[in-house]
Fold Mobile element protein.
Amino acid sequence: MERYDVAIIGGGPAGSATAITLGRLGWRVLLADSAPVGRFRVGEGFPPAARSLLNDLGLLDGFLAAGHRTSHGNVSLWGSDEPHMDDFIFHTHGQGYQLDRAAFDSQLRAAARQVGVSVRESTRLSQTADEDGFHLRLAHDGYEHLAHSRWLIDAGGRPAVFARQQGAQRMENDRLVAFYLLLHSSQGTDQDGRTLVEAVESGWWYSVLLPSGERLVTYLSDLDLLDRQRLLNSEGLWQQLAQTRLLSPLCQTHGYRPGTSVHGMDASSGRLSVFHGSRWAAVGDAALSFDPLSSQGIATALYCGQHCARAVHEALQGDPEALAGYADLLTRIYTAYLDNRQQFYGMEKRWGESTFWNRRQVRETPSQPR
């Protein structure tokens, strides 16, 4: 039976950043991710300020050489009938990027391997607690492998399955969901690398040009306000897109048509009721999840992954207060996020009778467990 100091569930940016930091600190780390290798993931915007986080992880040079599409800013139809342009050339940190998420996640995992982390892809991890930590069962391609870890970190995304098994509750502030679709065009004329954002009466859209040449379009609204059956049909979402003022003309100009089926995903704002417990902690979307409007999901995952790793490092060395400081950091991040979210949604006042927008004009009541 292989023995580890820390096992991490989930190999996205948060899990990988945690693994890299712990590996560099000299701990025996297992990183297990259950998703099929190369599966498409939404989460493509990489803001300019996040470059410093990659530099902290020692990954910036490799990232810049990987060929991610440059993003020079944002164009938004939000709070006004006239488009607003935010050009990154006027920002301190320069340009941003539209990520090839499969390549980005692969780079992070490769960096984890280089510092001695045992990376298991397409592997489902289950656990049983004991007095020294957790017995692990790793299932991959029909085979099972046993291991043991002193600590376990949930970086498995919004479901936070392990953290909830330990008694944590998911506290949500809204019911936002996203429906996304990849568009294809044979023309090859679209070169606009900016993120496009457009508010509509019952929600909002965003779109980016991916490194593959496909254009991602995503519609967001509250779960109880949607006709899910219609929107899960590519033609239904395409018809909804045809009503937009910014995105629809762009798609017509470049000859886009739906190229894949529609997929839905949770995009709500939420946090765990507790972020750590006996020999465990949560990080990334498992701990805090953000509205895509914030564009801070990946950056916060990298940032909190490093802080989670340092807190666990101190806890493994006998500091009983290390995780309390980490929990306080997450609480402050989420509180600031809610304040910023209210400010940005409050800018849109064109639809005074809209349930979606009226819900966001005032600060929500304390989040409720779900």
About this structure: The chain has eleven helices and 23 strands. The longest helix spans residues 322-345. The two ends are 37 Å apart (CA to CA).
